[in-house]
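Researcher: Let's walk through a ligand-bound prediction step by step. First, I give you the protein sequence. Second, the SMILES string for zinc ion. Third, you return the three-dimensional complex as structure tokens. Ready?
Model: Ready.
Researcher: Here are steps one and two:
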Amino acid sequence: MKFGRFEIETINFGYFRLDGGSMFGSVPKNIWSKRIPADDQNRIRLATRCLVVRDGKRLFLVDVGMGDKWSEKERAIFAIEADEKAKPSFQPEEVTDLVLTHLHFDHAGGVSRLTAEGKPELIYKHAHVHLQHDNLENAKAPNVKERASYLRPNWEPLQNSNLKLVNGSVEIYPDFWVHQVDGHTRGQQWIELRSPERSLIYTTDLIPTSHHLPLPYHMGYDICAEKLLKEKDEFLARAVKQNSIVVFEHDAEVEAVTVKVDERGHYAVQETIALN
Ligand SMILES: [Zn+2]
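Model: Step three, the predicted complex:
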């Protein structure tokens, strides 16, 4: 789809499953399971939908999915599966810019693969890597709650890449913005593309699926719920006001939506949008 001066598409690097209770925090199962069904291990199916942005000169890839560095046991725990329909429209060498929303494994696992000797090597070797400074620091010394999410083979090779560390809200390329938020994890960044009419925003884990639009529906993984609620409210108020296209990374069914405030005062889907 054409958006402003960009050409946009999404690619799902595969599905995985996480515990449904963890994904909905304090929302009880008899409520969230009406929105997304849980499997026999109480898990829900999630996508790793990444954004591809072109303008004729640059090719930006936003997040890279789980990657392939998983043991059989881990593949079973997370029910990792490929998306048979997903075929990248580019070669890794063509990616000029890799934008990582944060370095949790389900967003940055695909930055590297294992060599025959079992060492992690970067896949997008020529790309500039755009990341919040705070997130790299966080990944290198994670708190105890996030230790299993920030894996060394994902962040360590990045230190030898063409890293472009940023702080806060930054226009990294004309009409291409990143915005730091810290409630889910310190140094996460959501993505905003601007056109004269509206914006297209990539929510990352601030709002992982369309089912997480109501403010209290947020993940138990979030490190600071109070901060996240404020960031999410500001983000959604802006999305409603600007009639933004909101793209979900983890929604297995819904790619993108516009957002409204419903009759009960909750943020809700106005219409669903297909980007590809
Ligand atoms: Zn995630």
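Researcher: And what stands out?
Model: Residues 2-273 form a domain with the Metallo-beta-lactamase; Chain A fold (CATH 3.60.15.10). Residues 104, 106-107, 205, 208, 250 surround zinc ion (CB under 6 Å).
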